[in-house]
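Project standup — Tuesday

K.O.: blocked on the structure for the chain from last sprint. Re-posting the sequence here as requested.
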Amino acid sequence: MKSKENLIFGLIGFPVEHSLSPLMHNTAFKELGIDATYKLFSLKEEELDKFFKELRLKDSPIAGLNVTVPYKEKVIKYLDVLSPYAQKTMAVNTIVINEKRKTSGFNTDGPGFLVHLAKLGFNTEGKRVAILGAGGAARAIVSVLCLLPERPASIKIYDVDKDKAQYLIDDLKTRLDMAIVEAVDSVDDLNIELADLLINATPVGMKETDLCLMEEDIIHKNLLVYDLIYNPAQTKLLKMARNKGAKVSNGLGMLFCQGVLSFQHWTNTELDDDVKNKMWKSLTGGLKEW
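H.V.: unblocked you, prediction finished:
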């Protein structure tokens, strides 16, 4: 961790106003006595070049970043080094900036997702997985599932832009064994009625006006419905799944688990359970309900 005072960490994306990450990370900084603040940076795509150019300046106080939609893949061109896992996924959600202003990219989304799945008691081995969306978060999740010794039996991906889903597979195929993964043409083709795990990796559900992504009759009680959205705490998809007797989880656990890993990359500090518990409490206090 740098000795420099008044360090800035933050989240870049568009939009970012809904994020609860500042609650979690600022709690950890306070508990550890680190003179740092976590902020939100809402950036349009045309602002990225200027932002990363200024990040290189010696007097820049920014020492670490998280990356969210839609820039997890787009930031890679600005980075000096990628971790081995980030190289496989080609999606970055965590950036470390050292004293020489060199940038290193990591992906804690995939590992964070797995840690939370384990906490939920879900074993991935031999399971049938259906994923909505083919963006950076889906890329990390697909990658980490394919790297597991306990691989699922199948992973099906649907995106409204089918080319995007197929590109994700074709790109990852150059670095990973993707034999269990396929892109499908419609929500119906996900065969959710036969699936064990349904993951919503799209932003659909963040707004109260968003329509539900699927019909109620294909949800079943043996399904775990995992919505990466965490604010609001219960999307229409999760409410519908709960009413059908399915197991459900929002993305708060994944946010927390990946956030702990990000924080440890930035500070080279192993967080103890007391600090983690306070981080979690701060997150749950920031949720909204409809």
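K.O.: great, moving the ticket to review. The first strand starts at residue 7 and ends at 13. The chain has nine helices and twelve strands.
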